[in-house]
Amino acid sequence: MAERRLKFWGWGYEDQQLTEAVSGKVARFVAGRTGAVMHAYRAPPRLDEVTLKAPRIAVPAKLGALVSTSLYDRAAHAYGKSYPDYIRAFARDFSNAPDLVAFPENEADIVALLDWAGGANVAVIPFGAGSSVVGGIEPKVGSGFKATLSLDMRKLDRVREIDTTSRAARIEAGVYGPALEAQLKASGLTLRHFPQSFEFSTLGGWIATRSGGHFATLYTHIDELVESVRTVTPAGVMESRRLPGSGAGPSPDRLIIGSEGALGIIVEAWVKLQSKPRYRASQAFWFDDFYRAADGLRAVSQAGLYPSNARLVDGEECALAGIGDGKRHMVVLAFESGDHPIDAWMARGVECLRDHGGMPAGGGAHGARDATADAWREAFIKGPFNREGLISHSIMHDTFETAITWERLHDFHASVKSATAHAIHAVTGKPGHVTCRFTHIYPDGPAPYFTLHASPTPGHELEQWRAIKAAASDALIAAGGTITHHHAVGRDHMPWYVKQRPALFGAALAAAKRALDPKGILNPGVLVPAPTS
Amino acid sequence: MAERRLKFWGWGYEDQQLTEAVSGKVARFVAGRTGAVMHAYRAPPRLDEVTLKAPRIAVPAKLGALVSTSLYDRAAHAYGKSYPDYIRAFARDFSNAPDLVAFPENEADIVALLDWAGGANVAVIPFGAGSSVVGGIEPKVGSGFKATLSLDMRKLDRVREIDTTSRAARIEAGVYGPALEAQLKASGLTLRHFPQSFEFSTLGGWIATRSGGHFATLYTHIDELVESVRTVTPAGVMESRRLPGSGAGPSPDRLIIGSEGALGIIVEAWVKLQSKPRYRASQAFWFDDFYRAADGLRAVSQAGLYPSNARLVDGEECALAGIGDGKRHMVVLAFESGDHPIDAWMARGVECLRDHGGMPAGGGAHGARDATADAWREAFIKGPFNREGLISHSIMHDTFETAITWERLHDFHASVKSATAHAIHAVTGKPGHVTCRFTHIYPDGPAPYFTLHASPTPGHELEQWRAIKAAASDALIAAGGTITHHHAVGRDHMPWYVKQRPALFGAALAAAKRALDPKGILNPGVLVPAPTS
Q: A101-127, pLDDT tens digit by residue?
């Protein structure tokens, strides 16, 4: 049986490509609900339509077996999965494809590849499964390098050790989400970190980008699930101790978590596991007012209940998922436990939401799964697959996400939404559609996630997207948010990341990078400005 | 009314000094339970017994009002509160006292002091309330500096802003624990971070040392309560954004949290507050076997219940607190909530402990406070005050603490305890007494805290302590622990911290320090080796 290959240009496997008919159906549905203008179908790129420049460098013979220069491999490592990535792929533009793609099989291979790259002035871009939506794995490294190498971690895909007593496992960084959970299954334990990209992302990618998972509270980021990390840097290997907690200086792990491939290549980590949930309850609620729903969630977040799910989806975004009347806003509240019944937890959570005007959707009994919540969940998982239908019909679809403290939420939400909608109108000449949900909530604030749909001028999508992205990001930074809660910085967010972070932290980070990556070959331009760009 | 002054040589205020009679009572009690040898009473130092070398430098006139060279101030900033600190103070040895003590009133004063110190090659030691037990605030900086200045933050003591919506407050770093809570009181909110040093430690000190508080689970370290930090470094001021969560690169706050004054002076922070507990329940349990008690706590820690207290105290340590028969081990389990009754939580927690052989102590009804738990709590708070009684009678008392994953606990606990006891015997020629409790528990492991009592040869306490400390620390590092869970690194733990942390993290941290503190004047020798020592 042939290996199931990932699309070289978009979300999912090659056999998961939408037909023209399905693309049309998806686009018509979205156009109907957002007012976006649908243009004639454009087919996704085929590999035979792609031409690449010849690689600018070759590896020495001893590394030859690790490296591919095939058209497929190079094209498949050119982009992540952002809107501008799709637009360029649909334009058959793969000019930033890496010269080389390496598939190391172990840590020694990575050390050898980094040694060679350092000597040859080749930029190395760590690659998990390519789900970045922020230009994090694009080999766009400025002019200071002789060539680029995409370092694909997929062969380091094993769970090496499971400690059922402390509930932790030592896992290689290149493993995809489903394979990770499959290897844990027999132990009865699970990582239960389910970012939307779960199927096409890796443990190392999650740690490198501070990914946000399944849990809406408490264990939101992968950060909280990391016990120790092993990292290969050009200066050598570093590994932190496996400790449940420590107060010995600033946390070594917290320097690597979120380092986006700019400080080293994460090769392995001990991560914290938990028992499979035995008790679960989920219920959806409708609210007439978005901000009252937010108040309800604030009460939940400050109650010390730690629900596994506590998400607010605004009315228009519900409608886009085929749920509700477009006017009322949905909150999904769920608890789960591998240890004890969660009735008392759910009862108090429900009370918090009712106190703020929440009306239970569906049957109402909260002991079981809720149909409204399930419908939204299915739409959430299918979303990334459907995006190619929108691109095929020239509908712009993009998302951006952030976090803000509760007391600023109203003004923040209003100003970011309005600045984005205004920018869409100003740039495209047509109205845009901007919706919002909360992906995670904290006692001190939510993580709002915005989705936009627009009608760009075919052929001008890239420049129009850039202008809209800039306006949205400017508004978000001006109003006090973070440029990303869990999508990472990559290349796309650098201008706003630099504004957001303390300048002296930037200087400290650049100094740390010089210590670990003296030649600056790792993911140049990400987190630390590239020397020559 | 005269200002209530802190003792210049030990724990608490000057009016809290033990009488000779009380010292004798304390020492007799401890000697009776530990077998330690009691020697004749030695009085604590009086200020008129202390002589200091003249300050090696003076500040310029414009800084004169901020700086003291009084005997009291210099002596009171020479030491923290560790056993070797007491021993040297009782020896009337204050040779490491700072040349100058500064009391800045605001951030501008701190900037001016750092500017001057950088130009004059004066080492600056940030000082909160002096409760360090690891040599963290001792002006022992090697030979590379012209003089030393202890920078006492006590005048930056205000809560500046309270946000009751997001439950956070902006607070100056020099405020002592009780004054912090007093200023929050009217808001109905509380930080609820109660390290044992609470009365004599500051917010800035907590953040700089990653202090461990009241909560035995979840919000154990101050780390989890920090929303943003403002820091003055010799290179300028850095302040992170107030965000409930972020995924934008490695966390800037996590570089400052635990930086122990080596990267900058924390001047202010936004910290997360919570509502005052309205529902509380606490119950103590007895276990016949220490490791079965640990198993019970492991079950609690992995149940997702998040008790506010979940501490194990071994039998001999209970006896030292005047509780129990010395053979059975105590677990205290407590829940609290400002939001909802905690019956379901307590019921399941109790079940976890009973399943592992826990027998309820006292009355048994778990709706109210428990007398056994209360007795231990009182002994816990009085402990630091009583130490001077032991020193006065030449009984060595010291503590060290760590963290380890559950699956290594048995061997770890046995080997560290035995190595420490053996070292005491080898060094002093007399048996020692080593006890253990857990201060915090995590799903993947506990934070064991060891207390030792020994009978050093009078006049040789320092060298004997050093040998015992080294043996205990060697054992702890060899068995996989951290050199500190919440006491910090300071100067005393540097040799083991350097072994524990990844060497490349040390290089990255040193590089970050050069970026923030180019002349290396901040707390030299802490976290980053001092240039000339």
A: 999 999 999 999 999 999 999 999 999
ipTM score assigned to the predicted complex? 0.96
Three-state secondary structure readout of A427-473: HHCCCCEEEEEEEEEECCEEEEEEEEEECCCCCCHHHHHHHHHHHHH
Task: Name residue, tokens 């690689």.
Answer: A55
Task: Tell the CATH topology of A159-275.
Answer: 3.30.465
Nearest residue to A306 (alpha-carbon basis) of B442, B225, B347, B218? B218
Whether B217 and B304 have beta carbons less than 8 Å apart is answered as no
Q: Is residue A158 predicted with pLDDT exceeding 80?
A: yes
CATH 3.40.462.40 domain locations along chain A: 279-478
Enumerate the CATH 3.30.465.10 domain ranges in chain A, comma separated.
159-275
* Confidence category of residue A382, pLDDT binned at 50, 70, 90: confident
Strand partners, A170: A161, A270
How many C-beta atoms lie closer than 10 Å to residue A93's C-beta? 15
Total-model pTM: 0.97
Q: Which residues on chain B are in Cβ contact (under 8 Å) with A400?
A: none
pLDDT tens string A428-471: 999 999 999 999 999 999 999 999 999 999 999 999 999 999 99
Give the closest-approach CA distance of A531 to chain B in angstroms.
17
The 3-class SS string of A243-256 reads: CCCCCCCCCHHHHH
- Give A28 to chain B, closest Cα distance, Å: 34
Mutate to test the interface with B, among A405, A406, A411 (most CBs of B within 10 A): A405
* CA nearest to B219 within chain A: A218
Q: Cα distance from B230 to chain A (closest Cα, Å)?
A: 10
Are B206 and B132 in contact by the 8 Å Cβ rule? The answer is: no
CA distance B349 to B296: 9
Test A306 with B304 for CB contact under 8 angstroms: yes
CB-CB contact of A361 with A341 (8 Å) = no
Interchain contact, B406 vs A165, CB within 8 Å: yes
List, by residue range, all CATH 3.30.465.10 domains of chain B. 163-275
3-state secondary structure A202-237: EHHHHHHHCCECCCCCCCCEHHHHEEEEEEEECCEE
- Residue B472 has a pLDDT of 98
Which residue in the set B247, B250, B404 is minimally distant from A254, CB to CB?
A: B250
Question: How many helices (DSSP H) and strands (DSSP E) are in chain A?
Answer: 15, 18
Task: Report which of A249, A225, A376, A358 is spatially closest to residue A297, judged by C-alpha positions.
Answer: A358
Q: Is B236's CB within 8 Å of A274's CB?
A: no
Helix (H) or strand (E) holding B504: helix B503-516
pLDDT in tens, B169-215: 999 999 999 999 999 999 999 999 999 999 999 999 999 999 999 89
Comparing CA positions, the residue from B101, B91, B4 lying closest to residue B50 is B91
The closest CB to that of A212, out of B236, B239, B247, belongs to B247
* pLDDT at residue A2 in the model: 59
**Identity at B317, one-letter amino acid code:** E
Domain B163-275 has CATH 3.30.465.10: yes
Q: Is B459 left (phi over 0), alpha (psi -120 to 50) or beta?
A: left
Sole residue written with tokens 């302040």: B239
- May I ask the CATH class of domain A279-478? alpha beta
Contact criterion met (CB < 8 Å) for B404 and A243? yes
Instruction: Collect the ranges in chain B with pLDDT lower than 50.
Output: 1, 364-367, 533
Q: What is the pLDDT of residues B118-147, one digit of tens each?
A: 999 999 999 999 999 999 999 999 999 999
Nearest to B250 among A168, A259, A485 (CB): A259
Q: Is A515 close to B511, i.e. CB distance below 8 A?
A: yes
CB contact under 8 A, A507 and B516: yes
Torsion angles phi and psi, residue B108, rounded to 5:
-60, -40
